[in-house]
Amino acid sequence: MSKYTFEFLVLLVLLVGFMPLLAASKDRPAEAQPKAIVDHTGMLTILVNPQLELLAVIQYLSGSKMVFQDGTYADAIEAWFGEYKNHPIVQRLRDMEECGFAYDLPVSSFLRFEDLSFSRTHLRWEPSSETMNLHRLEYVTQAGTMDEFYDMLGQFALETDFAGFFASQRPYLQKKVEDAVNAFSQYPDMIAHMTEWYGYSHASYNLVISPLVEGGYGPALMDDEGGIHAYCVVNIDCSKFTDKELRELSSWLFHEFSHSYVNPLVDQYWSLFESAEKLYQIIQDKMYHAYSSWWVVVAEHLVRVNAHRLSELYFHNENAGVLQSEVDSGFLFIQAAYEAILQYEEEHKQKGRNYAEYFPSIAHYFMDKTEISEEEIARLMAFTGPMNSVYSGDVLIIYPDPDRVSGVKEYIMPTVNWMVKNKEGWEAVSDQDALDMDLSNKALCLYGAWGTNLILEKFKQDLPFEIYPDRIVADKIYEGTQLRIALCLPNPLNNRLGMCIYTAQSIEAMKDANAIFHGPEDWYVSDSDLNVLGSGSFKNKDERWSF
User: What are the residue ranges of CATH 3.30.379 in the chain?
Assistant: First the structure.
């Protein structure tokens, strides 16, 4: 090799690391069974798994809500696989998703396999119902047997040359792994901190990057010797992370890995929790998450409080506000769980007891706090925010009648129509029609400029803010002429249900009024340039909500 050839190759390698996602090309040579992209930092393994990327491809083709449907990586999938949207495996996955094959279950199922053959003789480890919840697969067999499904997967991978696609994206995926390794190398003892807190370690801790995945999952696998391999499956781009965002992601890792500790113990000691199952309906009505049973709610309480505590100790931050936000999101017993783990920490420090050994005491303490009166139940059932919790179910959008209010068609209806189209279970009516409707059994979204929406005017005296032509008075005075406010309150006709309000100083200022990032808090003041000027949570939620 000449000097110039070598220098050219070095330059090419350097360029690849900084190039955007390569366009998929079916002319690229590929491995018959592509290998995972793997690297390490401390006790953390960071990887991209080919089997999960095949899952993402099929979910994308099916239009699944489990994955993002846009972005550069999605464009590459579209270019390579777009012609297969009517393939039998795509319809099969749709049918299975309708039967419950969603969220963590497909991820857990695909991680079991060593390669894209999906052969039952190539299982990485045998499944454990405790760690993987694979017993839930019985609910999806209405769509056909799982063996048949796995056979179809292997055939689809060969037919579409998925290995070639994975090879074409390897530089892009490799860069994601490298960026994550560089980011998490700032916290090399993070996993050690977690294992010391629990008092024992698992066989491995794996951060799996999947560029289309929606949300995050914490499955676990059990090897032949009984060792647990914990996973956090998430979509991240660490090249752009600030220190604050990296800390938040580290807390996310604490959360997902905690499932591998908590879930088997909830299974083992379920008899201690099941007597309070009547509380599930209370909590379910307040939650905007996909938590389908009392078992899941109990486990999620304990996982969340453990993750909060691990983050609190590791980053020396405060949890008070975080715990209250969890209560507002429906985790009503999070404070009791927090008090229980403080007692565990003392036992761990003084007597060396680990989390598993102390868990029955945590369960008893948690359950003692679930003994509540009918009056307390009524209070807990009341809507407490945040805005995201209004979006969890069916919502009725009420907008000003376009025949009565000029500018509605131009500045309001595009957004209203978009919300109805993109939010399942949402419908929209004019304020004139809403006057004749029973609004006490619906979550509401009141949309319109100040003084233009008849239903908003009807509830005006109960609102904690004021709007004037030159200012909005909320937690403070916001001066300007193109200001908007978005917030949530209880439905005045039924305090168990929520109500969103999007309003502004003028009809023109309503354009894209919901385009700001919002949802985790109760209220947001913004301007027409999509700048959030103020946000936060209301207080006095037992009485008249106030800033």
Answer: 387-536
Quickly name the fold that domain 387-536 has.
Chitobiase; domain 2 (3.30.379)
> Binning pLDDT at 50, 70 and 90, where does residue 132 land?
very low
Which residues are 427's β-sheet partners? 396
- What CA dihedral angle connects 419, 422, 426 and 431, to 10 degrees? 20
Question: Residue length, the chain?
Answer: 547
Indicate the DSSP class of residue 511: T
Measure the N-to-C terminal CA separation of the chain; round to a whole number of Å: 71
Q: What is the arithmetic mean of pLDDT over 4-12?
A: 37
Within 369-430, residue ranges assigned H as helices are 374-381, 387-390, 408-411, 413-422
Kindly state the tokens that stand for 4.
């110039």
CB atoms within 10 A of CB 57: 25
Q: Quickly count: other Cβ atoms within 10 Å of residue 39's Cβ.
A: 15
Interatomic CA distance for residues 489 and 221, integer angstroms: 43
Decide: 79 and 111 in contact? Cβ < 8 Å.
no
pTM for this prediction: 0.69
CB atoms within 10 A of CB 344: 24
